[in-house]
């Protein structure tokens, strides 16, 4: 009897799965078009899955192995089962493999079950709690029905009239398993992640994110430009259907593992943002409905079940509605610091930050609703080219006594020193002075743009004002085009990122280096000599825009090592570094939470036992120094280097005259 | 008045014309929406939200070029909802340096709005702040300056709050049609959004214009810094003058009072507050 | 004692000869205890010894104080007398009139009014032979200092020759139409050569522009400097601020001018008659289309920080916020806060002062319990005077402060509040 029942079951499940898949695909297709090379994407899928995705999953060995056993077992079992039981190709070899696969899956599902015994807060509950049981049902069911095929049980065992009951029970178990695994996969069950996730990997909007066989960098962090020439194109995302179809697909791939939630600084600070919930809300949005079915942690301070959306209704309510709410509240979107910790952690390679900025773009460009100081900052950027509204001519005031070389005079140098808007900030001016001292000590041929420099557009872009970003960027590119230089060096990771990764799309291609990288290179080239470190213990805070955005974790540590500093690492450092709270315009939009992000980061510093925290970003410096009663001093790497500079020992005669020149200039700088 | 009747009255709404000019950023001198005019438009938009059915017409007299168009569009970018009536603006085209008063008077007389809102003074050109008064005089309408908010409009009478120094307010009732002028005391203008600004259109009508010949004869130059007035103690002794100058120099360093009783400290502060004339 | 001054030529000669060995002692004899630097010479002319005057300044350089105070008591008496004696000026037959409409804020001539009257005097007194008279048109009650004659004296000392005073309910509050009718009547009856008004919002700025349009004059606004110019139609050239303060416009002074504060020095050497005048004709009553419903109570704490001229700002060191709020209320100050106070939830976010909050431009910024983080100091860069109350004499705000009081902020604020309240009470009694 099972011989007839099983194919029916399997093919019904498959057919339903196909119907579900078509429905799901139609949901995704509500999104705007996006050019993706479908075939190439599908071809690259195995590598993206096995290498890139598992690189992320593999950070947790336990889960990684669990997933290999379960998913690998399931995929093999599903294929073999369709062959063996569906098509009746009852070869003992296939049957044996099927037994192996289902065993592997069963073992995996035991670990899944163990994890679900006492799940951490970041995991979603609800349907996910039954998943281990479904996995077990499937694997056990398949195992049992396969036993006769291999001949381990007599063929007729389940045939006899007496075993009807047994057969029915078995069929039921298999049906449960099939229902979860096949039907649920495309109709919105927890297994949806496998189907959507696979396609998401294949059709990812940042194909360049993934490594290639040739050893590509696998980093793509720059935001994508809006086409402002096309007046018909929507400015950002107003409603779920305004996302591109592969973004919608990406949202659907979410496994609700909550790793993003665990690392999100805004969530930890009690601000109303939870990246996982946000992605789930987007799924609710394009599928239509309310968020009542969500079973994970809510946005802090916002109960679940009050928000609803549909593919073609605004995500953020246009006016504050008295009753009911739209899909997401604006303050959720403005809580994000764009630190990319969620993206870095996401095993499904979902692009949270892109989605948030897309929605911010609509709020700023169409509604003019940038909260708090946002509007003022944007107005300043438009009118004065810097967010503080300072006289653009005063950008070099801090260097009045330094006699900084200017590009306008030199036209051609090795290094263009990009000052960034920190040039207007008294604290950052100390860093800049230190950096100039270091460059002079190393006899670097450098010059600054001075008053010709403008804000890089970073803040405008993160606040969603793509128009102002592009204006600033184009004007900066036009300025830079007038001069010849080998590379740009800046002490502002935000400028670094924007100049290096986001100007390219607008026609500006530059070799950009963060000052820590450049100093490391200078040191390694023997152009700098340091006095040994005499201070106490030091830790290093990785700026998001240097680390996660640009993968530069090592150079600052090399510099610190060169200074003779043993870095006492914080628990969260490197790619897991916790944001200082200063990115993405978060200090400007200033969404209240229960705690402040920099306070939490300063606690991390304290726990490392360091007396000094080295940073490499003006934003981080400002945020961390703003912590009251901080246990550690905040110094920029450039300052530490400048303090440790010593005159190089005379090694050759030709160097002597140059050195004296350098020494005097360095002294002048020190004054 | 019966509540229903009142509501009906309210529903009618009124025609509002907002006069806007091309502003000038105080630091960089770039064209922008003028601060006060934008506040005026903000006032009109706030009123429209209270009084549905009101129609806002944005009016500018001047030349049309690339710079000014961006500035003018930024007014229209304040329409951040559908049907706010800022899809287009009326542009009375005239060459730079022309007298804008007569074309504006003619236009206002022809379109007869019930309320005209304008910034107190322009950020470019003479910027004398005479224009609202000229319009009021020519049209024979009452004018209220330094407006803080519009409270309500009913039966052709508008109730307004006028801003007084130090945040004080005065309530006024004015019979329509009227002109109100707005300065820094009015609520700050909302953000101007790129999208609506880009979509907005202009309805341009060329006007006969007379060059402002008087203005052309004056000598205009960037503002010099005004000399800071010294505390001159005239007719008193040189010693007093010397002391005044010396104490000023002393003040630069800052006086630090340590080990004083709270009363002594308070007295020193009180003296300074009195000197600076901030206690009223 | 005899009135006859007996002279000793020898002593006088020694006094003149600074090389004489007895020079110093003789000088001391003449001048009493101190070395005399001034004495009556042989011809009854005052002689001075420039070398005997002066003192060694703090930097070791000799400084000369020419006030004469050094020489002793009697000189002080004369200067004090000179200070108090103002020349009385009466202009009976003025060649022309300069009309001034002071704001009379709160019933008193404001500093702006006094500056403007100084300007009016400059215009009126340009030709000494044919001086013009300054006629002030005052609306509302004039409180002045004291009563009757004293009040009149206050006006006279500000440089007013004639006063047209209209103290009627009709002109109280916001009554531009009624006031304009008066000014029109003055124009008809007296035809002043110039109309000068303060360019102050809600005062002369409004009324002056109305008047200019009524008279058909193109007023000069924002005038801050005038100079005589024979080529100008009315004999004066003026410099006026234009384009939101970014331009200086030089143009002939028109009949109606609205001047900024500090446009001229206030009158301080003369006292004028301030004779009351009244208008002959009945002022036509006009039906006003503007009705003043009176002032509305507003919370001073609601004033925008960026515009506030007096800010009381609290930080981490403020322990009793109720007392702080009370102090702000009594002082009439706008409340501000440091970032920490805002983060800790004691103050609203829009009250934050500093680079990351609001950049303030207050005349007086009073920082209570604020240590002065660099961002905070940046935000108060443009404040005129900074007062700091803090427990820690070493913190950064003390370096910035013009006046710093080290001590417990709660007690000091309480004492200050008590002092202000007491003064207020006293003033009210006097008035």
From TrEMBL, chain A:
Occurrences of domain 4Fe-4S ferredoxin-type (ranges): 245-275, 324-355
PROSITE patterns: 4FE4S_FER_1, 4FE4S_FER_2
Source domain of life: Bacteria
Keywords: 4Fe-4S, Iron, Iron-sulfur, Membrane, Metal-binding, Oxidoreductase, Transmembrane, Transmembrane helix
Name this polypeptide is given: (Fe-S)-binding protein
Record flagged with keyword Oxidoreductase: yes
Protein source organism: Vreelandella zhaodongensis
Keyword set includes Transmembrane helix: yes
Pfam annotation, one family: Fer4_8
TM region positions: 6-25, 68-87, 93-113, 134-152, 164-183
From TrEMBL, chain B:
Electron transfer flavoprotein alpha/beta-subunit N-terminal domain: residues covered: 39-196
Keywords attached to this entry: Electron transport, Transport
Pfam families the record matches: ETF (PF01012)
Gene3D superfamilies on file: HUPs (3.40.50.620)
Domain of life: Bacteria
Protein's name in the database: Electron transfer flavoprotein subunit beta
TrEMBL record, chain C:
Domain (Electron transfer flavoprotein alpha/beta-subunit N-terminal) ranges: 98-296
Keyword Transport recorded: yes
Protein name from the UniProt record: Electron transfer flavoprotein subunit alpha/FixB family protein
Family according to the record: Belongs to the ETF alpha-subunit/FixB family.
SMART domains xrefs: ETF
Keywords associated with the record: Electron transport, Transport
A single MF term (Gene Ontology): flavin adenine dinucleotide binding
Pfam families: ETF (PF01012), ETF_alpha (PF00766)
BP GO annotations: fatty acid beta-oxidation using acyl-CoA dehydrogenase
Species the sequence originates in: Vreelandella alkaliphila
Stored InterPro entries: DHS-like_NAD/FAD-binding_dom, ETF_a/b_N, ETF_a/FixB, ETF_asu_C, Rossmann-like_a/b/a_fold
